Every structure is written in structure tokens, then in C-alpha cells.
Amino acid sequence: MKEQIKELSRQFDCFYIYEERAILAHIRQMKENFPSAAFLYSMKCNPHPGVLKSIFSQGFGADAASLGEVMMAEAAGLSKEQIYYSAPGKTRTDIEGALERSVLIADSIGEVERIREAARRRNAVAKIGIRINPDFTLQGSGGAASKFGIDEAQAEKLARREADGFVKIVGIHIHVKSQELDAEVLGTYYKKIIRLAERFQTLCGGLEFVNMGSGMGVPYAADDRKLDIKALGKTVEEALASFRARYPDTKILLETGRYAVCKSGFYITKVIDRKESYGKTYLILKNTLNGFIRPSLERLILHYAASENPTGMEPLFTSRDAFGFFALKEEAVERVTLVGNLCTAADVAAEDILLPRLEPGDCIVMTNAGSYAAVLSPMQFSSQERPAELFLASDGEIRDERGNRIENGKE
Ligand SMILES: *Cc1c(COP(=O)(O)O)cnc(C)c1O
């Protein structure tokens, strides 16, 4: 990988690279540890066509967060039954466009009504899921106010009176938090979802699917503990055994974005200039905040945060020191501050870190850039050239975000 990155850096001044091998390894782990679940890929974290093709080829369906993603999943070859569209605030256009292309998951009672209207206009029954905001959180009991989903008590009422013919609730979706690394906490949480699903089986008169959402985290910072996916798989499979015996026709879905792709991605950019100012060494890089915003956001958020690790800010903020910075050459180390080429003082990727001495033209590699990286960065700011997004397939072929093949090693 290091050699390939070096070669590519002769053609590209800044780029993302996603390595298929790493994606497939993570997918294998998920499938091995949750044999009775089916998986959905949360496209919003990285919709690169190479990534989609690779993940969908492994039997994953799509967790789409917009009509655009529904269409991309359809174009990638998924059937209606494999595309689940769950997001707050779907417009009438979104609903009309997605009704025949995906399984709609209503995020509010108003949305159920809008779907009902769309179905009535077509004179066809819409089989939908509802996203439930449960009476528990990841860590404890008691629900919390949320812009996502329908509160459990309201959802119960809805399920009871849902009988007018144009809308049929055939599934439920619960997703309350991302990036959890504690298998015990997650296991307990999934068990609560399974109990909730049992109640809704009865309320809805049978469910075609239970989407248990995501939650599985990846280690970002060097001292993050890796999620024990084996232990989690064991807990969930045990809890699912009796559920599946009673409801063998209900599909159990797990979603993931980051677990599949975060670690597969790197962001590479180049030193354009170096300068000393009042005793500080600055390396000025191409496209930092605008190419990969999250390291800069982490600094900004921590600067203003009252607590050490503010929560509830995923995927904009994960944790302190969530991103690593590496050089591709060995030199004596020096203390440097990495800044970008934008005309704002907020464009700082890292402050006072140790790196081998770098000169203009040398590369910096940033880690954890496979998920919520390119998609979150404001690449239009100051009309800079956007970073390329490259996909390195297991067979060595490299393609960019438009599907063009890249000849590596040739100038
Ligand atoms: C974004 C999102 C996910 C993916 O979360 P990850 O932490 O990347 O796995 C899953 N489900 C829903 C509903 C989401 O909005």
C-alpha cells in the first residue's frame, strides 16, 4: 500500500484511497459473527462506486439516506426489497420517487400520512417500515427526545390503528447511536431491541423485517479499545435464537457504514510550503479542511467543548486524536503544525505534532478516512481542486470516483 500511495502521489496532489481488501476483511468478520442477520450498507458514509460494488457483491443491501442514494443503489443492481430508505424529512418528491424503488421507512407520523397519500394516488398498498425512537437509550432505560423516529408509545398506537389499506407496517427500524466500542453495552442494547421487536410482531400482526440499526464502532484514536465483535456476535445470536424460532420468516437486519469502510481509507495530501513563525514550524498542505474536514473540526470542537469528549456529534466529531498523521519518508523528527491552503485560520489539521522533516512536494497520510471523510468535506470552499477518490481493488486495479481506470506508475 505504501508503495502504491507513493506512486499515486506522482499523479495526484491530494487523494483518498480505499482499499478493497480491508473492506472485505471487515465484512467477513461481520458475516461470520452474525450468521442469522442480513446486512445493509449505510451508503452515506462513502458512496464511491467501487466501494458500493464491492460491498453489494457480498450480499449487503442498502441503507439509503436520500432519494439519490436509493437511485444509486438501484443503479448498482439492487432490487427494491434490498434497498431501505430511512431518513428524517423526506419530501413528497422523495416519497414519490422512492415508493417503487425501495422499502420506505417512515420517520414520523406525518410521513406515514404522506406515504399513505402517495400510495392512495397510485391505488396500491405501500408496505413500509417505521423508525421507532425506543423507550431506552444505548446505555440505559427511559427514552430520550430525538428528531429521529417515532416515540415508542406513539408507534404502538400507530401500529394498532393501522388498518386503512393503503399503508401496511411490515417492519421496524431502530438506530439510536453510532460508534460504540463496548460489546457488553451493545449486546444489552440489541437484546432490548429484540424484546421490542417481539411486541411489535403482535401489534403489527407479523413483521417482515426488524432492522436493528448500527452501533458497532471502530477504534479511531490509538488508545481506543477495539470492539469485541466475537463476544457481541455470541450475545446477539443467543438472544436471536428464540426470536427466530418463533418468527422464522422475519428478516433480521444489521446496518453498518463505518465498520465496513472506515479503516480501509486514507487521505493523502502534499506539503506545498513550509515556514517558521515566532518559533513555530508550519507545513502548508493542499486541501486539509476543505479536502478532509474532520481533523480540523476535531480541533475546533475541542477548543470550545466543555467536556473532554463531547458526545452526540457523530459523525462530525468522534473523539480526541481520532486521526493519525504519517509521512512516507524517514528523517529526523521535528515539531510541526499542519495547516491548509484556505484563507481561514480554522484550517488546522494538527498542532505541534512530531513528524519527520518534510519539504514541499512530500506527502502526508491521514488515517480513518474511509467513512464520513470525503462526503463531509466542503470541497467547494474557495473553488479549490477537489481531491481524487481512488478505489484499490483486491486484484490491484485502481479506479477513480467516475469509474475511470488509473494507470499507476505511469506519469
Ligand atoms: C448513518 C447511519 C448508520 C451508519 O452508522 P455507522 O456508525 O457508520 O455504522 C446506520 N443507520 C442509520 C439509520 C444511520 O443514519
Question: Can you characterise this structure?
Answer:
The chain has 411 residues and is an alpha/beta fold. 31% of the residues lie in helices and 25% in strands. It has eleven helices and 19 strands. Strands 1, 11, 12, 13, 14, 15, 16, 17, 18 and 19 form a ten-stranded mixed beta sheet that branches. An eight-stranded parallel β-barrel has the order 2-3-4-5-6-8-9-10, surrounded by five helices. The relative contact order is 0.16.
Describe the structure using short key phrases.
ten-stranded mixed sheet, 19 strands, elongated, binds pyridoxal-5'-phosphate, 411 residues
Write the layout of secondary structure elements.
Layout: H1 2-11, E1 14-19, H2 20-33, E2 38-42, H3 49-56, E3 61-64, H4 67-75, E4 83-86, H5 92-98, E5 103-106, H6 109-122, E6 126-133, E7 150-151, H7 152-161, E8 167-173, H8 183-204, E9 209-211, H9 229-246, E10 251-256, H10 258-261, E11 265-277, E12 280-285, H11 294-304, E13 325-327, E14 333-340, E15 348-356, E16 363-366, E17 388-392, E18 398-399, E19 405-406
